[in-house]
Amino acid sequence: MTRIPEKDRDILEQAMYLPMLLTILERDRTIFDKTGFKLKEPYLQLIEETIKAVQRDLKEARNAMRKGQMKVEQVARDEAFTMFIFIYKGFEEQHNYFNPRIRNKVQELMEYYLYNRYKNKEQANI
After folding, report:
1. Which region holds residue 7: left if phi is over 0, alpha if psi is between -120 and 50, else beta?
2. How far apart (Å, rounded) are the C-alpha atoms in residues 47 and 113?
3. In order along the chain (126 residues), what is the average pLDDT of each group of 10 residues?
4. What ranges in the chain are assigned the alpha helix state H?
5. The pLDDT value given to residue 120
6. Do the Cβ atoms of 117 and 49 come closer than 8 Å?
7. 42: Cα separation from own chain's centroid
8. CA angle (64 as vertex; 23, 45 as ends), nearest 5
9. Taking the complete model, does pTM exceed 0.85, yes or no?
10. 47 φ, ψ to 5°?
11. What angle separates helix 6-34 from helix 99-111, to the nearest 10 degrees?
C-alpha cells in the first residue's frame, strides 16, 4: 500500500516520463534535421514547440516536487522492469514499472503533446 496520494504520485510519474519523452523528441529532431526532406522546417518547428511545452510541464512538476518534498530516482533496470524509488516527505517507496507500460505511457504523452493538446484547446474555444 502506498502512502503517496494519487495527485502527488501523478506528479512523480510526470517527473519520470517527461524526461524520457524529451530524449525521444531530441533524437527525432536530430533525425529530421539530417534527413533529405524538401520541407523539413515545419516538422522541426513542431518538434521544437513540443519540446518547449514538455519542458514547461517538467519544470512545473519539478517545482511541485520541491514544494512537496518529493523526489524520484531510477535505481535498476532489466529487460522487463524498471525500478524507481519515490521519496515522499522523508518516506521511500520502491515501484517497479513494466517496460512496455513505460513505452506505452511515453507514446500516449507524445500523442498528447504533438496533437491532442491542440484538440483540447480547440474544444475549449467552442
Report:
1. alpha
2. 10
3. 88 97 96 86 93 97 96 96 96 96 97 86 61
4. 6-34, 41-67, 99-111, 117-125
5. 63
6. no
7. 23
8. 35
9. yes
10. -65, -40
11. 70
CA neighbor of 108 nearest in space, from 18, 10, 15: 18
The pLDDT score that the predictor gives to residue 123 is: 63
**Structure confidence at residue 125 (pLDDT):** 60
* Partners of residue 88 on adjacent β-strands: 70, 91
Q: Which region holds residue 90: left if phi is over 0, alpha if psi is between -120 and 50, else beta? A: left
C-alpha cell at position 110: 507524445
The 3-state DSSP class for residue 84 equals: strand
For residues 3 and 118, what is the distance between their CA atoms, to the nearest angstrom?
A: 35
Among residues 65, 66, 84, 67, the alpha carbon closest in space to that of 76 is found at 84
